[in-house]
Records
---
Amino acid sequence: MIDPALLRENPDAIKASQRARGADESLVDDAAKADVAWRKALLEFENLRAEQNAASKLVASAPKEEKAALVASMQELSDRVKAADAAASQAQVELDEVLWKIENVVVDGVPVGGEDDYVVLREVGTKPAFDFEARDHVALGELLDVIDIERGAKISGSRFYFLKGWGARLELALMNMALDQASAAGFTALITPTLVRPEIMAGTGFLGSHADEIYYLPADELYLTGTSEVALAGYHRDEIVDLSEGPVRYAGWSTCYRREAGSHGRDTRGILRVHQFNKLEMFSYCDPADAEAEHARLLAWQEEMLQKCELPYRVIDVAAGDLGSSAARKFDAEAWVPTQGTYRELTSTSNCTTFQARRLNVRYRRDEGKTATLATLNGTLATTRWLVAILENHQQADGSVRIPVALRPYLGGTEFITPKVRA
RNA sequence: GGAGAAUUCGCCUAGUGGCCUAUGGCGCGCGCUUGGAAAGCGCGUUGAGUGCAAGCUCUCGGGGGUUCGAAUCCCCCAUUCUCCGCCA
């Protein structure tokens, strides 16, 4: 939710942001109107309630024989209080309805436009030049017996798979390397619940336009999360978080579930787009004044991981129209996928400023002791999808795959996965 | 699955319709005292909304109801604990 104070002080800033996103600008005027109406209704109710409270004290202290008359005279006031209360509640509902529709105010400098209007910030690493016919990760997965897509489909349908042998070990190695790096940077490891209640799903902003992307278990009224961000953001719901020692950071590991309802026919081959995968997610609670700096730190940690995996990648500054509603800015790091001749997203990091925290009521104490809404940020540190880039970029002519040096300690020192070796 | 008990400020706790603008303790903060500390004493210590402000309003797990008036009575929901049953 946007900051109501900003709505009163500088509605034009919100309008400019909506414009940059290609979103509805008129919502801002609607919200301002609803805000005025709500405050008026609230004042009316509070004045009547004050009157009632005062009169109620008289009844309490009145002699018995006068009570009946006093009580009778207060019934009409009581009705008016009830009506005013209902009107104020209704006005607040109407205000919230509009406020929740307005997306987060983008950070200055975010590229204007839609999906294709991203700005490439940098390209890092050298794309591999193969002097043989490169195999894609599906072919490599079969050859090395590390990814079993056929049997995944047999037991669960399309977009499911088994990671097998060195494939399973490679993913665990990747996650462990990421967790070690995160722990060294001060993140607390969390293995999170993947089934959450509706209000948590709504509070994190995932039940909006993308609700059909989410698995739902009606018998239990629980949602399967598509990212541990949901649990990590909900973790401190309704709490005052101690930020006196700097940002509070969590590295959340979980399996992620996505229906991929709107992507029929896209990335149907392999494990690039699947219904179930694992992810280690960074999540940071911090002082809003520090949020942009923290965003840069999250991106730096992501790049460190990509470099340790010896992957060529580029970083893009995602355009306003392609941001999620909670994000004020988003950087994606995309790794080169040789057989597709293009970059594919491996990590994404969003600065949600106070937008998400306001919905979930997460605050911190400022130096003066006052409470204020804090900022939340998130970013991918490793996912199953990384295996695609690792397998394809490090493949050799004979179909074996070279393990990046930094990952080897997590695989018992193994340097190559070869077609003959089994885990 | 069944039965019962509970949920009050960071923690523990008092409170059975109006004197609750919620008790007491622990902890924490400030001060007095002290050579310094402990003890002791005094003051403060849930948050939120609105308003320029004084103030007013809300907040006793959440929501609804009864009532002139609800921490207190009723209903629904959540969570925790205990017992019984069933299962690994």
---
Amino acid sequence: MENKKKSTIKDIAAVLGLTPSAVSKALNDHPRISDKTKKAVKEAAIQLDYQPNYLSSALRKGKSNLVGVIIPRVNSHFFSSVVENIEKVLNLNGYNIIMTQSNELYAKECQEIDTLLKIQVDGIIASMANETTDLEYYQKIKSKGTELVLFDRGEEELNVDYVGIDDYKSSHLVVDHLVSQGCKRIAHIAGFNHIRIYKERIRGYKDALEKWNLALKYNWIIESNLRIEDGRRIMQQLLDAPEWPDAVYVAGDIAALGALQVLLENNIKVPEEIALIGFSDEPFTSLTQPSISTINQHSDQIGKLAAEAFLERINNPKKKTVNRIILQPELIIRQSSSKLLK
Amino acid sequence: MENKKKSTIKDIAAVLGLTPSAVSKALNDHPRISDKTKKAVKEAAIQLDYQPNYLSSALRKGKSNLVGVIIPRVNSHFFSSVVENIEKVLNLNGYNIIMTQSNELYAKECQEIDTLLKIQVDGIIASMANETTDLEYYQKIKSKGTELVLFDRGEEELNVDYVGIDDYKSSHLVVDHLVSQGCKRIAHIAGFNHIRIYKERIRGYKDALEKWNLALKYNWIIESNLRIEDGRRIMQQLLDAPEWPDAVYVAGDIAALGALQVLLENNIKVPEEIALIGFSDEPFTSLTQPSISTINQHSDQIGKLAAEAFLERINNPKKKTVNRIILQPELIIRQSSSKLLK
DNA sequence: TATTTTTGTTCAATCGATTGAACAAATATA
DNA sequence: TATATTTGTTCAATCGATTGAACAAAAATA
């Protein structure tokens, strides 16, 4: 309750006997303002604890220096790490981010987009909810002239900048490794085929099986939301069938954890009887017993590159070409798939 | 790139042959505007896809309708659930939230506060970082006239609205239950004593031991950051000592998970040889083998009440009294502390 | 009919910062 | 000395919405 007054450029102008516009120019290092005045103004600004009014300058300049980030859920190391890195890069460039989560719900996602457009963010960096198939709201972002960058979950037809990993190749890494461990009957607990990244993982999985002349059984590709309960349910389902796989490739770590729980509860030796590989390198994968092999998606890089893609677009508004940055996945081999590490 | 034009009240006014101010008043249901005009204006607004310019109205009204939420980390069910509920309540009341995380770092926290004050949020709802002992930045929020509500981790001397649980009582629930299970040598993997909530848990633990005439061993109270590696390290330390506890009460679930891992790695039967209880009811506590007993902190309620405390303060700016809302903790008994459930 | 009240709208200032144009003073050039 | 150039500052409009005061027209009252 001490100094509620909040000083403005007017106050500074009054103290120094200048006009507000001179003060504004001095603070913005306008070339026509003398060094002496600039110095005096900046000192007075500090004296008066002056903070520029963000709203007024945003209004005048027509930009808010705010960037919205929409992620499916916050409670995931991958997404929170991406956001952290987006924030790091953008803060350095004078932007602040507004983080929102869709909870994997299309309706929530639309609402978040509306909110972000309402508060006039300069751009939106997003990863789409599992549910999302209708791209209308994303078209809306573009049609309003707001920049849009997608990462991880993004559709090509939107024709915007995208940062992700090579999901097709990830599956090859997984299958190649499992084959090298002697596995021949590899099942895939997959994400939904209507989402590009999961579709790519499925495609890579199929092609890799074919590459190694392994049989492709369609009831060994089971799509789901990849929550922990999905992993549990589907693993149980696989065990209930007459023929067991000798390896399971899960398109998400959380679901892989669920699968692992069921395997252990059934006293199945991992990896000896059934090997297991997840996806995303969530921290807990290194902490389970046995630890879970997984794919590193380079979340830090993704965040950094997504932020840089946004900045580049802001700085070159007339740029027409679209960037698609595809990072190389990395297989992290742990106990759940390697007899040697056991 | 279709309709970049973004219509304003001017456009509506031009279409209807009115002045911008009449349009503004019509949209805000001013009593002196005829119903006929109001209807026409509202229809035209829809026709032109008019969206009020948030920045200008915020500037004029002197409020942004934005609320900053600072949490130590996003990657925790407790905090993300609180945020979700804050958001739910505030969205209904026309506010949007900006979520930021301090990563438990004091420096980051200060920076986040500066950012939020810069973009002129109407209030800040925060839970303090583990590192924070200097309250200067929080004083700053108040002195700028921005509303402040704390939850979970908050200090009384700041004299602001607070929502949390009764941490002292939580420890009693834990100790009472452990005693009922026949435990007599209860250790406490604690949070730092300089943070009020952890201090309260320690105090409750001590008093509860005394209540049951159990010996209090000071080297069985070990403070830490409560990360997973802290739980592991301290559990190992307890096992390396000559006398083992027969129960361990951990002030955080993540650290409890680390402790559980070490117990299992050492083939110690949980709860028969050593019982274990965590804190916060993180989802994974029900998924481990054995599942971990823990304290439910009512994160949904905390979020809702914190948001409501903010709203009440905004609506009654002259209100002087401070609300301290203390919820009752609930002990969730699972396998790690109950021989019956094993 | 004259006067007051009510109703519907416009006028003009405002929020705080920004910016091109205008202007005056100082300095340089012809 | 007269003119052109540079320099430092002020003027005034602007971003879009809001709001109290002012005003004119319509309706109600005396």
---
Amino acid sequence: MASKIQSVKGTREFYPEQMALRNFIYEKVRGASQAFGYQEWDAPFIESIDLYAAKSGEELVKKQSFTFTDRSGDFVTLRPELTPSLARMIAAKQNELIYPVRWWSFGPFWRYESPQKGRSREFFQWNIDMLGVSSPEADAELIAVAATFLRSVRLSPELATIYVNNRRLMESEFDVLSIPQEKRLDVSNLVDRRSKMEPAKWDAYALELGLNDAQLNGLKDILGNFDLWKKSDELVRLFAALEALGVKDYVKFDPNIMRGLLYYTGTVFEAFDTSGSLKRAILGGGRYDNLLADVGGQPLSGVGFAMGDVVIGIILQEKGLLPEFIPSPAPILVTVFDESLMKESLSLSAELRSAGLNILCFPEPAKLQKQFKFADKMKVRVVLTVGPDEAANAQVAVKNLINGEQVTVKREAVVDIIRKIIK
RNA sequence: GAGGAUGUAGCUCAAUUGGCAGAGCGUCGCCCUGUGGAGGCGAAUGUUGCGGGAUCGUUCCCCGUCAUCCUCCCCA
């Protein structure tokens, strides 16, 4: 055991069963994206570290990325997020793209963090963005995409909620409290941490940051005011659009949602599982209006969100919302009666495949009992046998494993009878 | 980066104060020489994560190390 080479820490191995889960998520992601007319795209998996240095936040670049030098001595990074690549690719074709651009992507990302529940070092992430429009209705569309996804995996509004806030609204509230510009970032982090800290500790931390008592109390008033959105025209329009889109039951205003990334400028949102063991965000995103300027493009606003596959996978599993992944590689098995009839089975299999059927053919002669047991374990629905009697009369024995019935038919009738059984 | 828990058969777990390493499930074979699911009988699989130490003797005690899980940090 010890001499065996283990998988790299924080990576997951996808046996067929896990692969089915990954593909299930991918399929639902594609469904929600396409329902709103988004196009699939992707970026390189390895990028220059400089791409992330500009905007992604120090923590992400310095501590959480997989970085190494290639054979020529250049620094390269396994991508920890997609947005900088998106910004570059958009900027490169900024004048030829047709706006609004609606793109989505589902691919691998890497972050060098200590693995724990809901977090691995290698994960898959859904990214979806709309660029070139800055209306609240565009924000609403992205939230509706998220809600459509949640609905499609049978996470009802009682099980998962999307919490929404707006950074511009918070900025104007901070103005009222006379919180100085240079403290805004710290205060944002403070707000972000409120749910994770004990109230007394949180107060102490706030004062430590240099807030006075009046500012602290004012901040608490803001964070407890769930009608605050009415003061924001953007949010009023957003909620009206969400209602018209039929997803309002998934969405709640929450002034405590801030999000860590620096580049958000307007509406921000985060979806949480409301009842499970995992207190992690399922997905999160928001509006960013200055992103392209940093990679040399003209100003272009966008809105988007990201969702990792790990958290959503655990939630769906815990709630029993996954379909049963039957590991049936094909619905039909062709047995091999004995050495002399091997070729009969091979040619029958080939014939059926060219008729469009997926066929599993036993790869060596073996006792029929063994082959039927194999068929049963593989959840095959139909077993075909060509024994000496069938071969002599150009026939095939067709057994339906669901009800146990077996008939012997002419070889040219096999396709039809199989289609009837597996339909 | 800091802290905690756990490593025994393919899986889930036992093993009395330190005294021959076990069970259930699964796997395979046979009962059953042209047919799966049920049943009966039987078999295989272990450097007890790895390395050292103390001991007549260790799965058990001590030290180190690696891995996994959890918490903090941070984030998706």
